[in-house]
Amino acid sequence: MALLLSACGDSEDSNNSNSNTPSIPDSPEVDTNWQPAGGSATISADISQPFLQIMPNLPSSALGGVSPGRELFITEWTPANVGRVLFDGVGPIFNANACTQCHSAEGRKPIYAADGMLSDAILFRLGDKQGQAHPHYGEQMQHQSIDLSIATEGIMRYSTVSEQANTPAGIQFSFTPTDANQPLGDTAISGRISPQLVGMGLLDLISEDSIVAAADPEDSNNDHISGRVHWVNEGSEQRVGRFGWKAINTSLRTQNANAMSQDMGLTTSVFMDPNCTINQPICWTAVNGGSPEVSDSSLDAVTDFMTALAVPERRIEDLPTFNKGAQLFAEVGCASCHTPKQQTANSERFPSLSQQTIYPYTDLLLHDMGTGLDDGVKEKNAESFEWRTPPLWGIGIVASDPEARFLHDGRASSLAEAILWHGGEAEETKNRFTQLSAADQQTLMTFLNGI
After folding, report:
1. Do the Cβ atoms of 267 and 277 come closer than 8 Å?
2. How far is CA 121 from the centre of its chain?
3. How far is CA 391 from CA 101, 146, 156, 280, in A?
4. Phi, psi angle pair for 393, to nearest 5°
5. H helix runs in 273-403, sequence order
6. Cα separation, 343 vs 359, whole angstroms
7. How far is CA 346 from CA 64, 116, 202, 287, in A?
8. How, if at all, do strands 311-312 and 42-43 pair?
9. What is the pTM of this model?
10. pLDDT one-digit tens code per residue, 362-373
């Protein structure tokens, strides 16, 4: 918070010194009749490991998928013909051999190690503003291989970037290819930290109609927010993208299959090809772990497990302060994209998740976030400057970790820094936030830390 306040100045002086201060619109009505944060999937916040927990009162009919799904989620997958048949086929080049290498019960694993080294909890997307992947490396960097005889794609390192006059402190990345004849050239690299996994099944159950209804691509209401749906081709259909930093996946099942493919080098019926280009013959000639390597029943089991993930309840120490923070969150404009409340549709597989009021703080839409967050990589129909509104539930638990990082590449070391990076459609909202008094800024941050 000190960085934020030093950049903004004290409350009343800064409020009075800038005649171009964005005006706060008429106070929106905020519903403070709080229902459980995740509906029927809500668990107590007083647990040591708040994430990757199963929702309460899980029906016995769902246990048949959830239990083996958890086993598949935590297991370390092996190369083909090594170890257990049901858990082999990883690689030959990959980023992680287990989901838990990136996803933690505590939230997010540390990313930035000493001497510029990076952990497995960050991956790197490759591409350009036209959506073209790198001709050799493809659309994602792979830094591990199953055998020393198989070359990895290279090593990524980071360095810190100091705070500038109009830009918060940040991170920049550098790539050293294993094969010096295969540089990145004009291809951009974009770090992507692994998000905390919370309420994934609930997000999957928000109806497409609800997401579409919230979109305003032409800014017809003149609020300078023009979120749009990321329409993704899936087979012969166009569906609403909702998962991933750029909403490239339309369902939790597809999201899981994509992670298995790109992060672990495991084929599924959704993504049958290896995670390599035609210029990487090892992926096409190496022994595989089956065709596909992850069966539909295993993919469905992992999806069942993630559907059953619970949502930690709010942590509220002082209700009036929390409610005032919720009001400020709406007044400055945060709630225009981070929609507090959503409703789930019906679920035959998990009936208890049907028609639930939930508080994920996202509209699941793409928004122009400005040049500062333009990563240079277009994915499907999401431009390089567009990002899906990330859900905020549980963000305060993540922020309690001294090593926590925020935004898509972890460049922000605090929630305050993350706010200061907002631009594009969020520029006015950021400016309103910086013009709040120091006390109101702290109240808003107290609210964020409690949701």
Report:
1. no
2. 12
3. 22, 35, 28, 36
4. -60, 135
5. 282-285, 296-307, 319-331, 395-399
6. 9
7. 20, 47, 10, 42
8. parallel
9. 0.92
10. 999 999 999 999
What is the percentage of the chain residues whose pLDDT exceeds 70?
Answer: 94
Cα–Cα dist 197/52, whole Å: 7
| Interaxial angle between packed helices 60-74 and 296-307, expressed in degrees from 0 to 180 and rounded to the nearest 10 | 110
H-state helical runs in 54-182: 60-74
Please say whether the beta carbons of 137 and 182 come within 8 A. yes
CB-CB contact of 120 with 264 (8 Å)? no
User: What are the structure tokens assigned to 235, written together?
Assistant: 């087979």
How far are the Cα atoms of 378, 398, 411 from residue 403, in angstroms, in the given order? 29, 9, 12
CA distances from 62 to 255, 297, 351 (A): 20, 14, 10
The tens digit of pLDDT for each residue in 111-164 reads 998 899 999 999 999 999 999 999 999 999 999 999 999 999 999 999 999 998
Evaluate if residue 95 carries a pLDDT over 90: yes
Residue 257 structure tokens: 């299959």
The total of other beta-carbon atoms located within 10 Å of residue 25's CB is 14
What the block records as the tokens of 287 is 């022994």
Q: How far apart are CA 439 and CA 133, in angstroms?
A: 46
CA–CA separation, 154 vs 446, rounded Å? Answer: 41
Q: What do you get for the CA distance between the two ends of the chain, in Å?
A: 18
Sign of CA dihedral 269, 275, 280, 283: negative
Provide CB contacts within 8 A for 343, sequence distance 6+: 206, 207, 210, 355, 356, 357, 358
Residues in the chain: 451
Contact (CB, 8 A) for 407 and 111: no
Q: How far apart, in whole angstroms, are the C-alpha atoms of residue 329 and residue 409?
A: 24
Confidence of residue 326 (pLDDT cuts 50, 70, 90): very high
d(CA 194, CA 245): 10
Name the amino acid, one letter, at 169. Answer: A
pLDDT tier at 109, thresholds 50, 70, 90: confident
Q: Under DSSP, is residue 219 helix (H, G, I), strand (E, B) or coil? A: coil
Which of 190, 194, 189, 297 has its CA nearest to residue 253?
A: 297
Residue-wise over 265-284: b if at least 16 C-beta within 10 A, else e? bbbbebbeebbbbeebebbe
Residue 347 buriedness (CB in 10 A; 0-12 / 13-18 / 19+): middle
